Give the backbone structure.
Amino acid sequence: AINSFFGGRNESFTHGLFTAKTGTAFLDIDLRSAYPIAMAICNDMNWENPIKRTYDRENTDNGKLHSEMFSYNELGFGYIHFKFPAGVVHPCIPVKSPDFNGLIFPREGTCFANISEMKLAMEMGAVITINEGGRVVVLQTGEKNSLFEAVKKLIKRRKSFAMQYGKKSGQALLYKLFANSLYGKMAQGIKGKKYINPANNNSEEASYSIITQPHYAAAITAMVRCLVSFSIHVCESAQLRVHSVTTDGFIVEGEPESTLRLLNDAVRKNFPFIFDALKEAFSDSESVFEVKHE
């Protein structure tokens, strides 16, 4: 799980000056409450029987995986080799760059990966095989989701304060911070990152928090990457040019209403649990996306 934990997708696909075509605009589109909503997949672990199923080179066709083996809202990871078709413009499997501190998304490679991104890759046409000596593990979870229950309470308090004091009020922003911090605290200490301790001005390595959970942290950030990668693929397939992606949002050239309708229809078909989570948290499941700037 630790080896399958990566940060957000941040890339620029174009550079220079651009003018939108007649009838279109440059849309800065974000996933709504991306990280809190992604916690909807983090059902409570069954610690007495934590592994639901495994795949290796012996119980598969020489390690070859198929998308129907997995669901997008399952938790799991593995050590794989992947290869995308040449026609895929923006592959979706993250690999740690050997040259700089960041992620790259090559057409072929070997890495640890989460099953949400494996499934998306295979549905984009990639061939994925389990590496020699490796395996893919799917975790066993129950029906209850204690984490998302807590997130829903925080989101509802934030919504209440936003209505009472304003969206940018201190009260509303504080509860937004609480909701977003849950993911951060679950990821704390996983990669040995350092920070400046203001008490002594020394650089120290972050320790685990009381709720550090590598498997949840890896699944949450993978789901956010998976959703933006899927959205980019949908846009490119519809001949809508995507210029950049930043963690939970991207810039695309298109007509606002039809572009949002295209994206929401695609997510509703492939990730219906995201709409369910939005409805639970916000009493609103009309759109997974919001246009920040146009």
